[in-house]
Design brief:
The protein has about 270 residues and is α/β, with parallel strands linked by helices. Helices cover about 20% and strands about 30% of the residues. The strands form three sheets. Strands 10-9-8-7-11-12-15 form a seven-stranded mixed beta sheet, sandwiched between helices. The protein has a six-stranded antiparallel beta sheet with strand order 4-3-6-1-2-5. It has a two-stranded antiparallel sheet with strand order 13-14. One of its GO terms (molecular function) is 2 iron, 2 sulfur cluster binding.
Length: about 270
């Protein structure tokens, strides 16, 4: 799959709870993003002049046809604050799809999707793909946030028949605590019964590190979609180095990831 740079038009900017917003974007002609798969990302930049030279990286939430795709974001810095203010008809420059993806849904294994905060998009995309393939019963979502407002797009998961387990730090929805508090018992249950499970996770680095420890202790296969600052998306700036095991001590999130096998990431 070849990445390309192209212009898109904002079709909708949906405000969600917890400060999240969902951008529905459309290109004038078919783009490579139509073939994107969960875990891949795009680089977006508005008409920001010289104030913000670098685009911002976003996981693809969905790519329903040849000209449309969507992203989910939250305003953390100046770039995302500007994107949050875009209106229908505004233009953005897009580069993508970029990066390595999660494995595809399969009938031979149950996929446990672990999302935290803005880590939801690639796992939401995966759940949608599983639903379209008739594999919703092979997918379970484990979704954590600070509070109830931090959990979005739950209606989609329910409509697709995806079993969803929630965790919030304040206990306002689901299990009180981090999402790993819901995941650990599920992994232990699978170990007791011999069920084949696989973990796919995306979220803040501390969450991913905790998920990695859980799966390595139990010998469960897992893939982590890392959140790193990516200024270029092409491996030119070398600003998104990830410590790994192997002949080379580092690989790059934008070109070698953002999805990595949990066993290869060199974290404590």
């Amino acid at each position: 799959m070849t990445a390309a740079q192209f212009e898109v038009r904002v079709e909708a900017n949906r405000r969600l709870s917890g400060g999240y917003f969902l951008l529905e974007l459309a290109a004038a002609a078919p783009t490579p993003v139509a073939d994107a798969v969960p875990g891949q990302f795009v680089m977006l930049r508005g008409e920001w002049g010289r104030e913000l030279l670098n685009p911002r990286a976003f996981s693809i939430l969905d790519a329903p046809d040849a000209t449309h795709f969507s992203i989910l974001a939250k305003a953390y810095g100046e770039g995302t604050r500007r994107l949050k203010r875009v209106e229908p008809g505004d233009r953005l420059v897009t580069t993508g799809p970029l990066g390595a993806a999660f494995p595809r849904p399969g009938a031979g294994v149950r996929d446990l999707l672990v999302a935290g905060g803005v880590g939801l998009p690639p796992l939401h995309f995966f759940a949608r793909m599983a639903h379209r393939a008739g594999l919703s019963g092979q997918v379970e979502m484990y979704y954590g946030g600070r509070d109830r407002d931090d959990l979005v797009l739950l209606d989609d998961l329910a409509a697709w028949g995806v079993v969803t387990n929630l965790a919030t730090e304040d206990g306002s929805a689901g299990v009180r605590g981090y999402v790993t508090a819901a995941l650990a018992p599920r992994l232990d249950a699978a170990a007791r019964t011999g069920e084949a499970v696989r973990v796919l996770a995306c979220g803040p680095t501390p969450m991913l590190a905790a998920v990695r420890r859980l799966v390595l202790e139990r010998g469960v296969q897992a893939f982590l979609c890392l959140e790193e600052n990516m200024a270029c998306g092409f491996g030119v700036c070398l600003g998104c180095a990830v410590p790994v095991y192997g002949a080379k001590p580092y690989r790059y999130c934008c070109t070698d990831g953002p999805v990595f096998d949990a066993r290869e990431v060199r974290w404590p």
